[in-house]
Amino acid sequence: MTVADVLLVALGAVTLGAGVLVVTGRHLVRCGLWLVVSLGGLAGMYLVLTAELVAWVQILLYVGAVVVLLLFGVMLTRAPIGPSPDLDRPRFAGLLVGGGAGLGLAALLVDAYRWGRVDQPPPGTAARIGAALFRQWVLPFEVVSVLLLAALVGAIVLSRRGDR
Amino acid sequence: MHPVIPYVVAALLFGVGVYGVLVRRNAVLLLMSIELMLNAVNLMFVTADTSIVGVPRSGQVFTLFVIVLAAAEVGVGLAVILRFFRLRASVETDGVGAATETDAPREADAPRAAVRPDPDGEAR
């Protein structure tokens, strides 16, 4: 166990714990705040995995934009302040499928990788990622920009007050 | 560094997200669970990028793409949820199809109605 492994285990535990609280919590707003903890833990894991740019983009876009948007959604739909009693369906099917998917994938990956180790790759700085993005992946990049524009227009069209 | 650790974390996080999607009734919480699943996939991409030698940096580039897709998805998803909330004053996903059938005609002609000038609606 190197330092990187210990950090990965700790951050992974934080991420998973916060994720479980997101899907089991009784307070809507607190679920959103636990999501921040979970995504922040993931950003830490990206840093340990030497993906610098992705980690900062994660914090900027997920923690900064997506979670704020979700909290806006919670508040615009007039969520109650206290605990909501009726948030969950019966748990059995969810436990079966979710647990099956998670544990099955985990078993598959453990079987594939065992306890093998790899060296830390060179860090994914903005320069490296930018070079890969604009040399190999230019077309997807442009398509994604068109998709963002379409999503923007779609969101505006959907949310404007159409009645009378 | 042992790549199996982040792989297992990603698999379990995906399972947590699946559980949330299946169990949660509130549509906003459903979106949060979908975010968890997307993040599990991102973690898997980044880990594969460190542990598979050959294609340089492609995993991290794909992670960036997925993050952008998630942002677009949340924007449109919240617009749909707010629209639904305005229609039914609730964001419960139970009985969405059955209950909106009766309201469907009114919703269907809404885009045509929106063409007419709307004194207070444009700001929303």
From TrEMBL, chain A:
Keywords: Cell membrane, Membrane, NAD, Quinone, Transmembrane, Transmembrane helix. The lineage of its organism: Bacteria, Bacillati, Actinomycetota, Actinomycetes, Micromonosporales. It is a multi-pass membrane protein. The keyword Membrane applies. GO terms for molecular function: NADH dehydrogenase (ubiquinone) activity; quinone binding. Signal peptide: none annotated. The keyword Transmembrane helix applies. GO terms for cellular component: plasma membrane. InterPro entries: NADH_UbQ/plastoQ_OxRdtase_su6, Nuo/plastoQ_OxRdtase_6_NuoJ. PANTHER family: NADH-UBIQUINONE OXIDOREDUCTASE CHAIN 6. The chain crosses the membrane at residues 6-24, 31-49, 55-80, 92-113, 137-158. It comes from the Bacteria. It catalyses: a quinone + NADH + 5 H(+)(in) = a quinol + NAD(+) + 4 H(+)(out). This is NADH-quinone oxidoreductase subunit J. Belongs to the complex I subunit 6 family. Its EC number is 7.1.1.-. It is found in: Cell membrane. NDH-1 shuttles electrons from NADH, via FMN and iron-sulfur (Fe-S) centers, to quinones in the respiratory chain. Couples the redox reaction to proton translocation (for every two electrons transferred, four hydrogen ions are translocated across the cytoplasmic membrane), and thus conserves the redox energy in a proton gradient.
From TrEMBL, chain B:
Pfam families: Oxidored_q2. It comes from the Bacteria. Coiled coil: none annotated. It is a multi-pass membrane protein. Residues 94-124 are annotated as: Disordered. It catalyses: a quinone + NADH + 5 H(+)(in) = a quinol + NAD(+) + 4 H(+)(out). Its main location: membrane. Residues 103-124 have a biased composition (Basic and acidic residues). The chain crosses the membrane at residues 6-24, 36-55, 61-82. It is found in: Cell membrane; Membrane. The keyword Secreted does not apply. GO terms for cellular component: NADH dehydrogenase complex; plasma membrane. Its EC number is 7.1.1.-. GO terms for biological process: ATP synthesis coupled electron transport. GO terms for molecular function: NADH dehydrogenase (quinone) (non-electrogenic) activity; quinone binding. Keywords: Cell membrane, Membrane, NAD, Quinone, Translocase, Transmembrane, Transmembrane helix, Transport. NDH-1 shuttles electrons from NADH, via FMN and iron-sulfur (Fe-S) centers, to quinones in the respiratory chain. The immediate electron acceptor for the enzyme in this species is believed to be a menaquinone. Couples the redox reaction to proton translocation (for every two electrons transferred, four hydrogen ions are translocated across the cytoplasmic membrane), and thus conserves the redox energy in a proton gradient. NDH-1 is composed of 14 different subunits. Subunits NuoA, H, J, K, L, M, N constitute the membrane sector of the complex. Belongs to the complex I subunit 4L family. This is NADH-quinone oxidoreductase subunit K.
